[in-house]
């Protein structure tokens, strides 16, 4: 608990919580331009549930990289990590960082989920919200964000500057979106783009009638399990990098 409190105090003036909420709200507002438009309130929720994973694929890899970089920014300064490790153990530092990361990710998902509900009320969507898809989207987004956060945190710990972390986030955003236009098998080899294959919202568009129909696909539970396994793997890699880090 002391390690978590220390991390929260260190990040208090950096406003990381506001940055996390801002990233989620930016993704939500962008998604309203693709699905859930006010002129089609009869399928508003369905459109949002379809569009948000696509927008998350663009925004979240870079967004989580920014948050991971900010979380390790103080320790990346010259001699700061050495001084810090005289005050607390490496294990305490790691678990404090991990807890702070998960809290930020939870805040991101909570803000995005609350935004869906608030937007539906404000725009007056008339279709019923599928709460099964809604909670699945929240769980999938949380797990992919956590997986990416630990991957970027590993890069932040491994290297002395934050350029590789931010560059990785940019590459992840671009390649994840590119994978969404490729055969489904391709996206399975790009974990930073798992937002889309984990989504259960699907769309059919009839070019003759110009009618859009949304439907629910089977829940890819196995892929969520893979995401959890990768999250644990990247967390272990981060811990090993911190244990071996020379200060």
Rg measurement, Å? 19 Å
Along the chain, the helix and strand elements come as HHHHHHHHHEEH
**What average pLDDT do the residues reach?**
85
Number of domains: 1
Layout of strands and helices, then pairs:
Layout lengths: L1 H9 L5 H17 L11 H28 L1 H4 L3 H5 L5 H34 L7 H28 L4 H17 L4 H4 L13 E6 L4 E6 L4 H24 L3
Helix pairs in contact: 1-6, 2-3, 2-6, 3-6, 3-7, 3-8, 6-7, 6-10, 7-8, 7-10
Give your account of this protein's structure.
- The structure is a single chain.
- With 247 residues, the protein is mainly α.
- The protein has one domain.
- It is 69% helix and 5% strand.
- It has 10 helices and 2 strands; from the N terminus they run H-H-H-H-H-H-H-H-H-E-E-H.
- Strands 1-2 form a two-stranded antiparallel sheet.
- Strand 1 (201-206) and strand 2 form a beta hairpin.
- The protein starts with a helix and ends with a helix.
């Amino acid at each position: 608990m002391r390690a978590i409190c220390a991390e929260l105090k260190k990040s208090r003036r950096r406003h990381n919580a506001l940055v996390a909420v801002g990233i989620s709200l930016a993704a939500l507002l962008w998604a309203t331009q693709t699905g859930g438009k006010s002129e089609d309130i009869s399928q508003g929720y369905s459109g949002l549930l379809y569009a948000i994973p696509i927008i998350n694929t663009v925004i979240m890899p870079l967004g989580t990289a920014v948050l991971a970089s900010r979380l390790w920014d103080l320790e990346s300064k010259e001699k700061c990590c050495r001084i810090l490790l005289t005050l607390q153990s490496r294990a305490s530092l790691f678990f404090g960082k991990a807890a702070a990361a998960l809290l930020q990710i939870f805040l991101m998902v909570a803000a995005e989920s609350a935004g869906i509900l608030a937007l539906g009320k404000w725009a007056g969507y008339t279709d019923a919200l599928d709460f099964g898809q809604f909670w699945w989207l929240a769980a999938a987004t949380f797990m992919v964000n956590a997986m990416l956060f630990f991957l970027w945190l590993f890069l932040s710990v491994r290297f002395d500057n934050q350029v590789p972390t931010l560059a990785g986030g940019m590459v992840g955003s671009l390649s994840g979106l590119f994978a969404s236009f490729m055969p489904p098998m391709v996206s399975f080899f790009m974990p930073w783009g798992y937002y889309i294959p984990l989504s259960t919202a699907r769309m059919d568009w009839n070019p003759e009638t110009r009618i859009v129909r949304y439907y629910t696909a089977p829940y890819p539970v196995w892929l969520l399990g893979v995401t959890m396994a990768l999250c644990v793997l990247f967390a272990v890699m981060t811990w090993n990098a911190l244990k071996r880090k020379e200060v």
